[in-house]
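Review session, final week

We close the course with one last complete record, chosen because it touches almost every idea we covered. It is Integrase, a protein from Aetokthonos hydrillicola Thurmond2011 with 614 residues. Go through it on your own first, then we will talk.
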Amino acid sequence: MKKTASNTSNKTINQVAEQNVFTLYSAYLLEPKSAKLNTKTTSILVRYLVPAIGGPVPKGVRATPEEIKTALDFLQQYPPSFLLEAPQLLEQVFSQKEMDKDTKRSFRSTINLFVNWAIAKEYVQAPEKKQSEPKEQIQYIQFRAPSGQGKVKTNNYHGGSNKEPWALMAKKRGEGLVYPGDYINKDLESELSDFEDFRIDRYNCAKRTIEIELKSIHQILGWLHRAKKIPLEELRLTTIIPHAHLIISREECLKKKNFDYNLQISKKAMARENAFAEANFTKNLILEYLNFIGGTPRNKERIVKSAIALAKYIFREEIGKDDYPKEQDIPMISRLQQLSQILNKQQKTTSATIPHHRKSVPWEDALQVLEKLRIRANTHVCRVSQQGGRYIYSRQRRDNGIIDDLQHFLSLGFMTLMPPDRSRTYYELEIDKTLVQGIYQGGLFIPKKEMNNPSQALWYIHLEPESYKTGRIYGEWWGQVPNARFGDGTTFYEYIDKWLTEGREFEQKCNHKFFFRGPRNYEPLNSGDWRQRIKNIFVRETGKPVTAKELRKMYVTYLKDSGASEAELEAAAYAMHHSRQMQSQIYDEQDRMNKMAPILDFNERVWQKVLSSS
């Protein structure tokens, strides 16, 4: 019987592929695929793999045909099984080269296609998978959204509007300036520095407060440049808040070298009138900007307060003088404070853009989410299923995915295993500074290394007054991190230790001492990162966009619903660094029916007593 061309071709490939890596490579080139992929595979073998095993090294940037042939011929001395070692050898080479992550990922994918092809064709035998320990055999089904359901997009859950970045010197994480032509001129740079010193020296403002004010200032400056077309070189702080001549000197009131009292009165009145005209113009400019950015009255009020802080700086020489003894006597400050008061009243009478019940879950559900994250952090093998729930196969999870889950578990753990604090406490949690290990007794802290029995050491969050928003009111604060024990016997401290020893610097060193870090760039986190992290966790697990701030409301509401005692509510307020008044006014989202339950029960007892005696 005559053999077909196809049968002949397959036989030839099988015969050749059994000889060495070169003939296996030659067979791979015959497979239908893009010419670009073949070229990339050849380049990786010639430039990286062959030199790594002692073969010839191309001399130029681009290998010559002769160099390519020599390098590929070198592979004839290696059996096909050697191909299975290629990915690991190349990883060692990549780690020594200055390659960006995208290039490494592309090369890794290319060589894996070659290896997997050889395994699929049974030209080489797939390596046996190592037996995992029982602890690693937990199978957590459905890591992804069910088939047919797209990933939930978390943008605009809270009513914000998408705009192109407009701030001066706006940056995208890891991508440099949004507008490469942006710069801060020398005069403006000097003014910004002076403004920062002024806020510290004159008002003793916290670092975070100044950061918020400077962010608002940069945004307004960017808007003035992009929307009002003011050149970058002409931008000054007075472009936002213009200075008005208010103090009339004695020299300005001389008439024929004699002091003229009437002239003084006239000039002061004129100066005040001009100042109010300038203030009204600035107020309208700020209103135009607020209309541009949109958002809630609360956010707008925050921007106006930054403008007020800037006005205090601009008129710092006038404040306290005889004609303007108080800040509010300055026309510019007076007008901006009026605007702030209007926005404050609007905030009190404006419903939340997104009602609390649409961005929160019961506190018990938050603890269930924490447990799900803990299981994910312990899951090394997962099952993959397709539409209809039919089980397809198990696969080993990537180590960096497990590390990410560990960090997410700890992030939520700190916010739920103890009364949740403001986000800043967590994204600025710093090893050996605000997160310390040892024992706190009798008002003294003993570090772990100085303890007689280090095994008894506990973890604490330690905040100095400047480390948190209400620090000037509540002072230095110590909070013990509970060593919660979970259903499988593991403890929260064990996960902290695992993160510090295995996860925090899993792929690279951190250039800081913060406990938490970015998942890919290993940089410190900021408020936006933390907000997004917590929100993404809850969107994935519950479908609700719960933020760190909503967690605080959820906790207080849970305490009220559970009938917490006055002592417990007082302790919670202290732990959360706010007053009982704020606890009730800002964080209590207790349902109306639950709030009314005590008086309804009282009324029921009264009428039952009356009716039963009649």
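Two points worth writing down before the exam:
The mean pLDDT is 84.
The longest strand covers residues 435-441.
Good luck, everyone.
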